[in-house]
Amino acid sequence: MIETRGLTKRYGPVLAVDALSFDIRPGVVTGFLGPNGSGKSTTMRMILGLDRPDAGSARVGGRRYHDLAWPLRTVGALLEGRAFHPGRSARGHLAALAASNAIPARRVDEVLALVGLTGAAGRRAGKFSLGMTQRLGIAAALLGDPEVLLLDEPVNGLDPEGIRWIRDLMRTLAGQGRAVLVSSHLISEMALTADRLIVIGQGRLLADTTVAALSARSASLEDAFLELTAGTAGYRGRPA
Ligand SMILES: Nc1ncnc2c1ncn2[C@@H]1O[C@H](COP(=O)(O)OP(=O)(O)OP(=O)(O)O)[C@@H](O)[C@H]1O
Ligand SMILES: [Mg+2]
Fold first, then answer.
1. Does residue 201 have its Cβ closer than 6 Å to ligand 1?
2. Torsion (CA) 49, 199, 40, 33 in degrees, nearest 10
3. Contact present, 95 and 108 (Cβ < 8 Å)
4. Is CATH 3.40.50.300 the right assignment for the domain spanning 2-74+146-229?
5. What mean pLDDT do residues 9-28 have?
6. Least buried of 50, 70, 104, 156, by fewest C-beta within 10 Å?
7. DSSP state of 63
């Protein structure tokens, strides 16, 4: 569903993503783990065609993002930061996205209901709380009923009810046969949510495995993660 091959990105002296190759499969939730600055968001941006790789490639459903006729109908994404005009209503934001991707307008109310925002659909999205903003971002990701979902730290700042809601949603979406790639720093949350794991450090692949297999390597998944990534955290200035 997602294939990266030798994916590489440099920012000046920093090798943010270093020859990364992995496959993300349909029907499972894959956790994308790595210390701060290890290249998770950069990898996701390259998969979505928002950053151009210096080498290698990323494909979604066998195609490069830019070759997808209707991208939102193939891959939905929630990235860091607010990705909407603050003055637009939630419904207006989704309606504009739907129109530009040839998605039927009735789908807007479907996804608003799915994320629990029906009652707030007419309010200015710029005034939304963090949890509502995350829900609106997820509504946008689901708008095109995509086979592939990329979620970059979707539970950041959410309350326990919101965290559980996103967990259940991701499991449901994977159960429908979709490929779900989700980054998070909450290892205990990933232990509950993910089936498979991709672990990176300093832009390099450290593990492509299952939650069960990585957990079995140490006393807990968190211990195994810390052992695997030891020495790769907090390093920002590698020469390219
Ligand atoms: N636009 C940019 N310009 C310059 N450097 C960048 C840019 N984006 C990312 N980097 C650098 O690339 C490296 C990887 O960053 P990235 O945001 O992909 O990491 P991450 O794994 O998502 O981290 P976090 O867990 O903190 O979100 C870091 O060293 C970062 O400083
Ligand atoms: Mg990030």
1. no
2. 130
3. yes
4. yes
5. 96
6. 104
7. B
Number of the ligand 1 atom closest to the C-alpha atom of 51:
1
Identify which of 8, 9, 38, 46 to mutate to test ligand 1's pocket (most ligand atoms within 8 A of the CB).
38
Determine the atom of ligand 1 nearest the C-alpha atom of 39: 18
pLDDT of 237 > 70? The answer is no
The 10s digit of each residue's pLDDT in 144-191 is 999 999 999 999 878 999 999 999 999 999 999 999 999 998 899 999
238 pLDDT more than 70: no
Confirm if 223 and 214 have CB atoms less than 8 A apart: no
What is the rounded distance in angstroms from the CA atom of residue 35 to the CA atom of residue 228?
A: 11
Domain boundaries in the chain? 2-74+146-229
Joined together, the tokens standing for residue 154 give 């979707």
Parallel, antiparallel, or unpaired: how do β-strands 29-33 and 179-183 relate? parallel
pTM of this structure: 0.94
* CA 58/CA 111 separation, integer angstroms: 28
Confidence of residue 234 (pLDDT cuts 50, 70, 90): low
Closest residue to atom 8 of ligand 1, CA basis: 42
